[in-house]
Design a protein that fits this description.
The chain is mainly α. The chain has a single domain, classed as ABC transporter involved in vitamin B12 uptake, BtuC. It is about 75% helix and about 0% strand. It has twelve helices and two strands; from the N terminus they run ααααααβαααβααα. It has a two-stranded antiparallel sheet with strand order 1-2. The radius of gyration is 20 Å and the shape is globular. The two termini are about 20 Å apart.
């Protein structure tokens, strides 16, 4: 009986990984093009940005908040970097730095509205989403900006080891350490579990609430830069709907939208699960609109499995 209980507990705790591995094997079986170096590399290059957005979203969700501005902040990162490089002659590394500063400023504004002015995260981030998208359209005049070769696209160059993939891995490792090994990570989770108890213990919770929105915005801005590097175009329209995919990745990874529960590694696996679904449907030439229906149904199934898992644990 004890062995059966341990096995059941193991399956419940690791169902995110099991779902991903099962889906991966199914993809390998139904398409001979899936398990190829070129295809797997493309998945990682395409998902480097969305994975960072999902990690940033997780930090906000852990506090019980939500950040709807991530897609628009991605557009600011892409657009501002392109404008600074092409119209002002700013070196691409410095352009990324300025764009990150702008993105963090937007995240700071969201955090101030939530932490200090007591706005609901949904409302505050919805307002910043509109502002950020407007900034992206304004600075580009709603026109895609082509970038020169040998600048931002170096971040996706094979000869440099695909830097955006390496940067993504480093950032994931950093946030896994923050989540599991630091007082900051534990307090962020505690804010989502019982913020009043944290306040009574003398912790200044508003600083933590502010910081997670800043982190989310910084990672979203960098994700926008990654998209611009991969396409070699700065575009004010990127990131539309990205907030929904990021939330879905967190939930598939077992995060609770009520706060206090979530895992960086499982969120990354959640994002990759969504990537596999999209990739295999493209390989099978499934039309774009039915893809959305199938993807939505799979998300419902994955979230339902998480809900049932939580009930079984209880």
């Amino acid at each position: 009986m004890k062995k059966d209980h341990r096995m059941k507990h193991f399956l419940l705790d690791n169902n995110t990984y099991i779902i991903f591995l099962a889906l991966f094997l199914i993809c390998c079986i139904i398409s001979d093009k899936f398990f190829s170096y070129l295809n797997l590399r493309n998945i990682l290059l395409q998902q480097a940005g969305p994975i960072l957005v999902s990690v940033g979203m997780l930090m906000v969700i852990l506090t019980g908040g939500i950040d709807l501005s991530v897609g628009s902040v991605m557009a600011v990162g892409s657009s501002m970097t392109a404008v600074l490089m092409t119209r002002m002659g700013v070196p691409w590394v410095a352009a990324i730095g300025f764009s990150l500063a702008a993105g963090i400023a937007l995240g700071t504004l969201t955090g101030i509205l939530v932490a200090y002015l007591k706005f609901q995260g949904f409302v505050a981030s919805l307002a910043i989403m509109t502002i950020a998208r407007g900034i992206a359209y304004t600075i580009t005049n709603a026109t895609p900006i082509n970038l020169e070769n040998g600048t931002l696209n170096l971040l996706t160059a094979k000869e440099y080891g695909y830097p955006i993939i390496l940067i993504m891995i480093v950032i994931i490792v950093i946030f896994v350490v923050i989540e599991t090994c630091t007082a900051y990570g534990r307090l962020v989770i505690a804010c989502g579990s019982n913020i009043e108890a944290v306040k009574l213990s003398g912790i200044r919770t508003r600083r933590y609430l502010l910081s997670v929105y800043m982190i989310s915005a910084a990672l979203s801005t960098l994700a926008g830069v990654f998209v611009a590097a991969r396409s070699n175009v700065g575009n004010s329209t990127i990131g539309e709907g990205q907030e929904l995919d990021a939330i879905a990745a967190c939930v598939i990874g077992g995060a609770s939208l009520a706060g206090g529960k979530g895992s960086v590694t499982k969120t990354v696996i959640g994002a990759l699960t969504l990537a596999l679904i999209g990739n295999i449907m493209n390989l099978l030439a499934v039309p774009a609109y039915p893809q959305r229906i199938i993807k939505g149904c799979i998300i419902i199934a994955a979230v339902l499995l998480q809900v049932l898992t939580d009930k079984n644990k209880e």
